[in-house]
Design goal:
single chain, alpha+beta, four-stranded antiparallel beta sheet, about 35% strand
Amino acid sequence: MNNYLHNRIPNLKPFNYERHYESLFINQRWVLVNGISKKKSIYTFKEDNILEISRKNETIKTSWSVDILNVFSIETEDGLITVKAYFKDDDILVLDNEGKEEFALYINTTNYDEELNSVEDIQAFLKEKYKKKVSNTIYDHKFYYISKSKEYGPFTTEELTNKVKNEEISAYCFVRDINEDDYSKRMRIADLMQEL
Protein backbone atom coordinates (compact mmCIF):
# COMPACT_ATOMS: atom_id res chain seq x y z
CA MET A 1 0.00 0.00 0.00
CA ASN A 2 1.40 3.38 -0.88
CA ASN A 3 2.00 6.05 1.76
CA TYR A 4 -0.50 8.37 0.07
CA LEU A 5 -3.36 5.94 0.78
CA HIS A 6 -2.12 4.97 4.25
CA ASN A 7 -1.95 8.63 5.29
CA ARG A 8 -5.50 9.25 4.09
CA ILE A 9 -7.11 6.06 5.44
CA PRO A 10 -5.18 4.34 8.24
CA ASN A 11 -5.66 0.77 9.46
CA LEU A 12 -6.57 -0.80 6.14
CA LYS A 13 -6.44 -4.59 5.84
CA PRO A 14 -5.31 -6.09 2.51
CA PHE A 15 -7.86 -8.10 0.54
CA ASN A 16 -7.63 -11.75 1.54
CA TYR A 17 -9.26 -14.09 -0.95
CA GLU A 18 -10.24 -16.77 1.58
CA ARG A 19 -11.67 -14.30 4.07
CA HIS A 20 -13.21 -11.60 1.87
CA TYR A 21 -14.13 -13.02 -1.53
CA GLU A 22 -17.32 -15.00 -0.80
CA SER A 23 -18.62 -13.24 2.29
CA LEU A 24 -17.78 -9.58 1.68
CA PHE A 25 -16.93 -8.99 -1.95
CA ILE A 26 -18.92 -10.97 -4.51
CA ASN A 27 -22.50 -9.93 -5.36
CA GLN A 28 -22.43 -7.02 -2.91
CA ARG A 29 -23.77 -3.55 -3.77
CA TRP A 30 -20.76 -1.20 -3.49
CA VAL A 31 -21.66 2.50 -3.74
CA LEU A 32 -18.74 4.59 -5.02
CA VAL A 33 -18.16 7.45 -2.58
CA ASN A 34 -15.83 9.42 -4.88
CA GLY A 35 -17.97 11.86 -6.86
CA ILE A 36 -21.31 10.81 -5.35
CA SER A 37 -22.45 14.43 -5.27
CA LYS A 38 -22.25 14.51 -9.10
CA LYS A 39 -23.48 11.02 -9.93
CA LYS A 40 -24.18 7.88 -7.96
CA SER A 41 -22.55 4.66 -9.15
CA ILE A 42 -23.12 1.17 -7.73
CA TYR A 43 -20.52 -1.50 -8.47
CA THR A 44 -21.40 -5.19 -8.24
CA PHE A 45 -18.58 -7.69 -8.79
CA LYS A 46 -20.12 -10.93 -10.09
CA GLU A 47 -18.61 -14.42 -9.85
CA ASP A 48 -18.29 -14.83 -13.60
CA ASN A 49 -15.87 -11.86 -13.71
CA ILE A 50 -18.63 -9.50 -14.79
CA LEU A 51 -18.66 -6.07 -13.19
CA GLU A 52 -22.01 -4.27 -13.26
CA ILE A 53 -21.85 -0.52 -12.85
CA SER A 54 -25.30 0.96 -12.26
CA ARG A 55 -26.07 4.65 -12.62
CA LYS A 56 -29.43 6.36 -12.59
CA ASN A 57 -31.14 4.74 -15.62
CA GLU A 58 -28.34 2.61 -17.05
CA THR A 59 -26.26 -0.43 -16.19
CA ILE A 60 -22.90 -1.01 -17.81
CA LYS A 61 -21.42 -4.50 -17.88
CA THR A 62 -17.67 -4.81 -18.01
CA SER A 63 -15.06 -7.25 -16.69
CA TRP A 64 -12.70 -7.73 -13.78
CA SER A 65 -10.20 -10.33 -12.61
CA VAL A 66 -7.95 -10.97 -9.62
CA ASP A 67 -4.55 -12.66 -9.71
CA ILE A 68 -2.73 -14.78 -7.18
CA LEU A 69 -1.20 -11.68 -5.52
CA ASN A 70 -4.66 -10.14 -5.06
CA VAL A 71 -4.05 -7.54 -7.75
CA PHE A 72 -7.28 -6.65 -9.55
CA SER A 73 -7.59 -5.74 -13.21
CA ILE A 74 -10.77 -3.83 -13.96
CA GLU A 75 -12.03 -2.77 -17.35
CA THR A 76 -13.57 0.69 -17.06
CA GLU A 77 -14.83 3.32 -19.48
CA ASP A 78 -11.33 4.80 -19.32
CA GLY A 79 -9.57 1.52 -20.14
CA LEU A 80 -7.93 -1.23 -18.11
CA ILE A 81 -6.81 -0.25 -14.60
CA THR A 82 -4.83 -2.25 -12.06
CA VAL A 83 -5.70 -1.87 -8.38
CA LYS A 84 -5.02 -3.41 -5.01
CA ALA A 85 -8.02 -3.95 -2.74
CA TYR A 86 -8.18 -3.15 0.98
CA PHE A 87 -10.93 -3.28 3.58
CA LYS A 88 -11.33 -0.64 6.28
CA ASP A 89 -13.94 -2.94 7.78
CA ASP A 90 -16.62 -5.24 6.38
CA ASP A 91 -18.57 -2.40 4.76
CA ILE A 92 -15.79 -0.16 3.43
CA LEU A 93 -13.69 -1.19 0.44
CA VAL A 94 -10.78 0.80 -0.97
CA LEU A 95 -9.30 0.18 -4.41
CA ASP A 96 -5.81 1.68 -4.66
CA ASN A 97 -4.82 2.55 -8.22
CA GLU A 98 -1.39 0.99 -8.76
CA GLY A 99 1.30 3.49 -9.62
CA LYS A 100 -0.87 6.57 -9.03
CA GLU A 101 -1.86 8.59 -6.00
CA GLU A 102 -5.53 7.77 -6.55
CA PHE A 103 -7.96 5.49 -4.81
CA ALA A 104 -11.66 4.74 -4.93
CA LEU A 105 -13.68 4.34 -1.72
CA TYR A 106 -16.82 2.17 -1.67
CA ILE A 107 -19.51 1.49 0.92
CA ASN A 108 -21.36 -1.83 0.92
CA THR A 109 -25.08 -1.07 1.01
CA THR A 110 -26.30 -4.65 0.49
CA ASN A 111 -27.68 -4.88 4.04
CA TYR A 112 -28.46 -1.20 4.49
CA ASP A 113 -32.07 -0.04 4.10
CA GLU A 114 -31.50 3.64 3.34
CA GLU A 115 -30.32 4.99 -0.01
CA LEU A 116 -26.90 6.63 -0.21
CA ASN A 117 -27.27 9.49 -2.69
CA SER A 118 -25.21 12.31 -1.21
CA VAL A 119 -22.29 13.18 1.03
CA GLU A 120 -24.80 13.80 3.85
CA ASP A 121 -26.24 10.28 3.40
CA ILE A 122 -22.73 8.82 3.65
CA GLN A 123 -22.03 10.82 6.80
CA ALA A 124 -25.28 9.55 8.36
CA PHE A 125 -24.42 5.96 7.35
CA LEU A 126 -20.94 6.17 8.90
CA LYS A 127 -22.20 7.87 12.05
CA GLU A 128 -24.82 5.15 12.60
CA LYS A 129 -22.39 2.36 11.75
CA TYR A 130 -19.70 3.48 14.18
CA LYS A 131 -22.24 4.32 16.86
CA LYS A 132 -23.43 0.68 16.73
CA LYS A 133 -19.84 -0.55 16.74
CA VAL A 134 -18.99 1.53 19.82
CA SER A 135 -22.15 0.36 21.59
CA ASN A 136 -21.36 -3.29 20.85
CA THR A 137 -17.76 -2.88 21.97
CA ILE A 138 -18.77 -1.13 25.17
CA TYR A 139 -21.53 -3.65 25.84
CA ASP A 140 -19.18 -6.65 25.60
CA HIS A 141 -16.12 -5.06 27.19
CA LYS A 142 -15.13 -5.15 30.86
CA PHE A 143 -14.22 -2.30 33.16
CA TYR A 144 -12.92 -1.70 36.65
CA TYR A 145 -14.52 0.97 38.81
CA ILE A 146 -13.29 2.87 41.82
CA SER A 147 -15.48 3.74 44.78
CA LYS A 148 -14.35 5.17 48.12
CA SER A 149 -10.69 4.77 47.08
CA LYS A 150 -11.12 1.05 46.42
CA GLU A 151 -11.08 -0.71 43.03
CA TYR A 152 -13.64 -3.34 41.99
CA GLY A 153 -14.11 -5.48 38.93
CA PRO A 154 -13.84 -6.20 36.18
CA PHE A 155 -17.50 -5.93 35.18
CA THR A 156 -19.37 -5.61 31.90
CA THR A 157 -21.29 -2.43 31.20
CA GLU A 158 -24.52 -4.33 31.76
CA GLU A 159 -23.35 -5.47 35.20
CA LEU A 160 -22.30 -1.93 36.10
CA THR A 161 -25.65 -0.57 34.88
CA ASN A 162 -27.50 -3.09 37.06
CA LYS A 163 -25.41 -2.11 40.09
CA VAL A 164 -26.33 1.54 39.50
CA LYS A 165 -30.03 0.69 39.05
CA ASN A 166 -29.97 -1.36 42.26
CA GLU A 167 -28.28 1.60 43.99
CA GLU A 168 -25.26 -0.52 44.93
CA ILE A 169 -22.91 2.05 43.38
CA SER A 170 -23.07 5.57 42.04
CA ALA A 171 -23.28 6.27 38.31
CA TYR A 172 -20.52 8.82 38.91
CA CYS A 173 -17.86 6.29 39.93
CA PHE A 174 -14.81 6.45 37.69
CA VAL A 175 -14.16 3.48 35.40
CA ARG A 176 -11.16 2.26 33.47
CA ASP A 177 -10.92 -0.23 30.66
CA ILE A 178 -9.30 -3.55 31.61
CA ASN A 179 -6.45 -2.64 29.23
CA GLU A 180 -5.72 0.69 30.93
CA ASP A 181 -3.51 1.21 33.94
CA ASP A 182 -5.21 4.19 35.53
CA TYR A 183 -8.30 6.41 35.61
CA SER A 184 -6.73 9.36 33.80
CA LYS A 185 -9.44 9.40 31.11
CA ARG A 186 -11.90 10.40 33.84
CA MET A 187 -14.69 8.26 32.39
CA ARG A 188 -17.62 7.46 34.65
CA ILE A 189 -20.19 4.65 34.66
CA ALA A 190 -22.76 7.21 33.51
CA ASP A 191 -20.66 7.79 30.35
CA LEU A 192 -20.77 4.06 29.54
CA MET A 193 -24.51 3.92 30.16
CA GLN A 194 -25.09 6.78 27.68
CA GLU A 195 -23.42 4.80 24.89
CA LEU A 196 -25.75 1.80 25.23
